[in-house]
Amino acid sequence: MASGEDAAAAAQEVLLYQAAQTNIFWTSSAMALLAYDYLLTLRHEVRFVWSRKFTGATVLFLLNRYIIILLYLVDIITLFPIISKVSACPGTGRFITVLEVLPYIVWAAFSSLRAYALSSRNLPIGLLIFVLSLVPAGVNAYFFSTFSFVELPSPSNCTALSDITAQLMTIVSRASLMAADALVIGVTWASTYRIGKASRDARLGFSFGTLLLRDGEHLEVLVAMNIVHMTLNTVKPNDFVQQASYVTVLENPITSILVSRFILNLRAIDHRG
Fold this sequence. Notes:
This protein is mainly α. 78% of the residues lie in helices and 4% in strands.
């Protein structure tokens, strides 16, 4: 009996070690992607955001851009034995879970406002997209509430553990997000032709319609990533170490980057106009 328990404990340690190493690689890659894009677009941010009047769009841009950066900075800290006191681990972990939920609220507001504006201020469409986009925030908030944070030997360090599986919650969360994205894509395509035709008639160069069509394609990429995320969680059994695939580790930074670039491009067209 003792040998069986020892073998199970050893297997658990191996899973923890493998999950910690994989998490370090994915999180570091996401942070590198965010840093690279930040350096590329900082001058545009200074010109089109900080040098302009402070508006609701400015608030949306700053929340979208800097919450995700703060999230991965704090997340990187927990990947290494920097937190010397065990008591600091639960507090840091809870702070990270709050930062994990907040971007979904920002993105829900962005998607709903975008659809509302493009659909000639159709309030039901805007509200529907907002509610659908908000489902991942609620699902993640519930799931994160089941976490217990423990300080483990390196490389695991501050680790979140849960005794419930995330398979069903992942399906609900991603399905609602894909439905919201599909609605935004439909609204965008419906309005692009009208706006593009008006721009061509006015003999404008790079038009607002062109921007919508080009930057709107990012939604198709996100839908594809959500499909991959759902598939991996369906075919791969969950365990107490790895509750979900690592797709969202890159999907969330990519979403933040694309939203930021859309707002910056919108400001650039307005500046030229």
